[in-house]
Amino acid sequence: VTETADVDELVNGNWMSQGxxxxxxxxxxxxxxxxxxxxxxYVSRWITVKNPSxxxxxxxxxxxxxxxxxxxxxxxxxxxxxxxxxxxxxxVISAAKYGFSVPGSAVTEAYVHPYDYATLGPIHxxxxxxxxxxxxxxxxxxxxxxxxxxxxxxxxxSSLALLERSEHVQSISFDLKMHNLLSFSLSYSLLHMKDxxxxxxxxxxxxxxxxNTGDLPLEVKxxxxxxxxxxxxxxxxHDCKGFALDPGESIKLQISYQTDxxxxxxxxxxxxxxxxxxxxxxxxxxxxxxxxxxxxxxxFWAQPRQCEPPVSDIRMIYAKPLTRxxxxx
Length: 329
Fold this sequence. Notes:
Blueprint: E1 4-5, H1 9-16, E2 32-33, E3 37-38, E4 43-50, E5 57-64, E6 68-70, E7 86-89, E8 99-101, E9 109-112, E10 117-126, E11 132-141, E12 145-156, E13 160-164, E14 167-168, E15 172-175, H2 179-182, H3 186-191, H4 193-201, E16 204-212, E17 218-225, E18 228-229, E19 231-232, E20 235-237, E21 243-245, E22 250-257, E23 265-274, E24 277-286, H5 289-301, H6 311-318, H7 324-327
Parallel strand pairs: 1-5, 2-12, 3-12, 15-24
Antiparallel strand pairs: 4-10, 5-9, 5-11, 6-11, 7-24, 8-10, 11-12, 13-14, 13-16, 16-22, 17-18, 17-21, 17-23, 19-20, 20-22, 23-24
Helix pairs in contact: 4-5
Keywords: Membrane, Transmembrane
Protein name: Transmembrane protein 131-like protein
InterPro entries: TMEM131-like, TMEM131L_Ig_5
């Protein structure tokens, strides 16, 4: 059973009286530093102890329940706050309590041979806020009595934003508009067939910036469109490879859409695969009905065809044979 206590001067005095020397220490480190961890998840660390004497030493880990929480910043979201889009979390793992804790399966006692080492723990750090957390653990032993080791950790936030022209975007839209190209007459358009075909087949391109607006580094392992790596159904992610962003850093993403004119609207999702889950942002491509119909026609007319036979040959093929009866000869 793990002991947790509010340690006062009397308890400290009682434990210290059991020690045989104050010139030694069983602690290897001066403090236990936990790396910044996402609010709502936890990280673990161990405490290494040593026996600097030529007699066996028994050590016991006791966690001080008193904690100081300070230096808080911004919202206290338990789950990642992605400022645009949605994060589908792969798995949520919780520790027993917020702050510092020792799980029931932890090693809290050890018999240390002379000049040997032992490891106690683990100690979990599970922040509920974007704050600094300060606590302590006590190592009770029959050599120095009781020694205190500070515990320090920081709760951080993962946050990813997608920006278009410095504006946050909740979705990405591609709109194919060519009203000016479709307003001229048929005879005029035939004279400019190449321009029309080029306009209809031109992909729409968006430049989107992915920015790390949180406290923790982010790594995007892969990029997909609705489960298909790099592209699907006309949507394409250019320079499609993973990337890493430190807090405040951004990277340009180029995404395009090229319609095959089979549908007026196409909906898909941009997926950025992170270590903690998949970041989703909806994408929509729209082609007006008149553009859809006219471009289909132009694209059909522009398709290569077999050479038609000359006029004289057509007459020979399709005309009925002329007989004396019909010629009145």
